[in-house]
């Protein structure tokens, strides 16, 4: 009986797509063991050296061999290039593959995607209220263009293709954020089936904490952020010009994503630009 896990579920992203909500629900399953922290980021570190035992030991304190079957983590940095890591997605995918190969472990990957417009808006607001990248710029000044890095880390099809160089299609489960929020039990059944586990749902409600909720919490302590009120920030959204650029840049790959992996994008605002 293994004292350390050999079957892994890695939620590889995407950030601002409900990874924390999904992770919490899956970690509640009696056969799934959560990592000592949700996002260890091991495979996305700039200074990386393959160490099978070191990775497995991240579950050592929680792992119960007679009970657990699968170890889970959810590092969004595994699909976050070039936003939060200098290590590109293909290199991360190769590292995970090498870990799987040399440890002879079983690795399943879950990737959550979201309407590109909503995801980019949510990420920009998060970065802005925390003072990252934008200095003292007003949000209105951000409505002129879209940074290429946002287009890169929201091109889901290219991200998946980087992983497909090392992993089979059956090693992936792709989830739509909207389904996770609106049809949670159905999504969890799909996840547990993918992991070859019986369905369990204890009824706990892990609500997705959107940007609006976080912003309101921050403004309880601060009346203004860089001269802007909560209403100024809450009312901000991508301009038509920005949405058009995002659509034109991603439409071909989003269509491929839908056709190749059966992802339903019909309810996305992005789809309305088709």
Describe this structure in words.
- The chain has 274 residues and is of the alpha/beta class.
- It has a single domain (7-273), classed as P-loop containing nucleotide triphosphate hydrolases (Rossmann fold).
- The chain has eleven helices and five strands.
- Strands 2-3-1-4-5 form a five-stranded parallel β-sheet.
List the helices and strands and how they pair.
Layout: E1 7-13, H1 19-27, E2 32-34, H2 52-56, E3 70-73, H3 89-103, E4 106-113, H4 116-129, H5 148-152, H6 156-164, E5 172-176, H7 177-182, H8 184-194, H9 211-219, H10 230-234, H11 240-261
Parallel strand pairs: 1-3, 1-4, 2-3, 4-5
Helix pairs in contact: 4-9
How many DSSP E strands? Answer: 5
The coarse silhouette is: globular
Residues in helix, %: 40-55%
Q: According to CATH, what is the topology?
A: Rossmann fold
Q: Can you tell me the number of structural domains? A: 1
Class in CATH? Alpha Beta
- Terminal Cα span: 54 Å
Biggest sheet descriptor: 5 strands, parallel
| CATH superfamily annotation | P-loop containing nucleotide triphosphate hydrolases
Portion of residues in beta strands equals 5-15%
């Amino acid at each position: 009986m293994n004292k350390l896990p050999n079957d892994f579920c890695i939620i590889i992203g995407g950030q601002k797509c409900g990874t924390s909500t999904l992770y919490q629900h899956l970690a509640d399953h009696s056969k799934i063991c959560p990592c000592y922290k949700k996002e260890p980021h091991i495979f996305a570190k700039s200074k990386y050296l393959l160490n099978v035992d070191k990775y497995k030991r991240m579950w050592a304190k929680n792992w119960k061999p007679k009970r657990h079957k699968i170890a889970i983590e959810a590092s969004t940095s595994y699909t976050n290039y070039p936003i939060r890591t200098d290590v590109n997605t293909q290199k991360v995918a190769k590292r995970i593959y090498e870990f799987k190969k040399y440890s002879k472990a079983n690795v399943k990957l879950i990737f959550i995607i979201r309407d590109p417009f909503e995801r980019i808006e949510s990420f920009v607001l998060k970065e802005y209220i925390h003072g990252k990248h934008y200095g003292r710029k007003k949000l209105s000044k951000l409505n002129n263009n879209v940074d290429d890095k946002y287009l890169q880390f929201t091109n889901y099809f290219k991200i998946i293709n980087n992983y497909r160089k090392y992993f089979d299609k059956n090693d992936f489960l792709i989830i739509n954020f909207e389904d996770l929020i609106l049809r949670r039990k159905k999504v969890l059944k799909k996840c547990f089936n993918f992991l070859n586990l019986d369905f369990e749902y204890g009824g706990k409600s892990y609500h997705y904490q959107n940007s609006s909720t976080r912003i309101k919490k921050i403004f309880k302590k601060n009346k203004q952020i860089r001269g802007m009120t909560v209403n100024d920030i809450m009312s901000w959204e991508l301009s038509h010009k920005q949405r058009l650029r995002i659509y034109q840049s991603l439409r071909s790959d989003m269509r491929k994503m839908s056709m190749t992996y059966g992802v339903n994008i019909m309810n996305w605002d992005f789809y309305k630009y088709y």
